[in-house]
Amino acid sequence: MMGKISNISLFCIGVVALAGSAVAGDIEDKLADKALSAYGGDKLLNLKAVKLRTKYKRLTNDQGYIVGEFDIDHYDNSVIIDFENSRKEFRVEIGLRDDPYIQHHIFDGENAHRIYAASKQIDRNNGRTFTSLDWRTPTRFDPFLARLLYENKEQAKHEGNGVIAGKPVEKISFRAEGHPEYTLFIDPETGLIHKMTRPHWIPGSVFAYNFIEHTHEAGIPFASQLYVTKGGVPENLSILRTADFDYDLKGAFQIPEGYADLPQGIDVSEMVVERLADGIYHAGKGWEFSLFIDAGDHYIALGGYGGLKDRFEAVQKAAGNEKPLKILAVSHHHSDHIGGTGDAFDLGATIVTTQKNYDAIRRVSAKDIPDESFIAAGASGEIAGGLVKYIDFPNGHAEHHLMFYVPSLKMMLTGDFFFSRQVEGSPKGSETLVRFKEAIEKAGFDAELFAAEHSSRVLTLADLDAAIADMAPKQVCPASWEICQD
Ligand SMILES: [Zn+2]
Questions:
Q1: Which of the residue ranges 12-21, 303-312, 395-404 has the most confident prediction, judged by mean pLDDT?
Q2: Is pTM, for the whole model, over 0.70?
Q3: Ligand 1 mean position to 481 CA, how many Å?
Q4: Which of 94, 114, 118, 392 could share a disulfide with 473, CB 3.0–4.6 Å?
């Protein structure tokens, strides 16, 4: 009976929505045209070269050092775009000035290059495209959202209206190739865009980009300030924004010569299930891998990345049984590493983690997980009667970080540490790896193999020693880069 009622009401909603969209083509067209002309019209469509820069204060709450608290650091980037020849140069500086994390990418019209100046290497096969190379940075500039909407207006959908700062806005959503769905909030009188939202992978959560205090450059308006929230919580606050819509490309797109090619990357596009020993599997794809261990009449999983259910089902299929998942142990609180906890809860598993992380896991999984479905991890301990041992390894990345050891295989799962996405060669070392090796020796772990949550490759103790003997050079923000000068 209930089913029938909801079917009827769904049908009614469908009719209303259809009736709405039959006349709605007009309003989408009008909004797209209005926004385009507000942002310079043909001038915007015919831009030859631009340079965009945003310097932010970044407030990290779900990737920070302590769960539930904010870290504050710099996040500065610039992108130069040559529209005529489909070239791009993207520079990023993140972190603290005395120890920055630098990224440098060039798309030369055909191929993406990631340049590692500190180690003098180039990655020429990283799969980035003209659109994805710069993390879609132009969509953080309202004129380029107006342009993207105009180019994709046939697929746009009016989503009703709202109010921003006391003024009415019209909401319009659209899809463009290589982009997530965007919803724009447009002032119907001026055509200016005041806000853009796009979905976050956490259910029901969105990123919101608030475009504030429009200014002009070469006849094109743009927001001189940007304020970004994630799931309603502050994320980025711009402190400097510049747009040069008539940029002189001289000196751009210089790919350094004499750099070594980074060894070939591992193909992680398809799900792989590697059987490491009887009943022990390392499974995943992309940046998401877990260890699964057959504990007799059930499985336990180590590593809580999103997509856990798919990995678990792939393991069940490879093993040829349907034993349930009873335990998931996660390494640390960063949202990506607990993205699979909702799947684990749905599968009926108990979650092993540091007690401070319970609320973060409830928030990220969007599930009301009761305390009884958690097991609190201490400074060290055992899981499943000693099938797995662990130590908490506090380090600069996270206040609590569990490192798992599987004695039967002499193997560790190392969370965010010590992985390589290249087919061969050892990763470079860091002070943290030196302390990690001391910690596993102190714990009495006789580790010979190291599986990762970010790669299918299993590294060896020889790789760990090679990494420690070959420390990563410290990154320096080049003095010639504008983003390094202020
Ligand atoms: Zn992390």
A1: 303-312
A2: yes
A3: 28
A4: 118
